[in-house]
Amino acid sequence: MKSFVDPRVGIAVPPRITNAQAAEIVSRLRAAAGISIGADKHAFIELRVGRRLRDLGIPDFAAYMQRLSGPEGAAELASLVDCLATNTTSFFRETAHYDWLENAGAPELAAAGSGRERDFVIWSAACSLGAELWSAGMVLERLSAGPLGRLRSALHGTDVSTSVLERAKAAIFSEEELTGLPEPLRKRHLLRSKAPVGGRMLYRIEPELRRRAVFAYANLMKPETAPRIEADVAFLRNVLIYFEPEGQRRAIEGVAARLRPGGYLLLGHAEALPCPIQGLTQRGPAIYRKDG
Question: What structural domains does the chain harbor?
Answer without folding.
Answer: 4-84 (1.10.155.10), 95-290 (3.40.50.150)
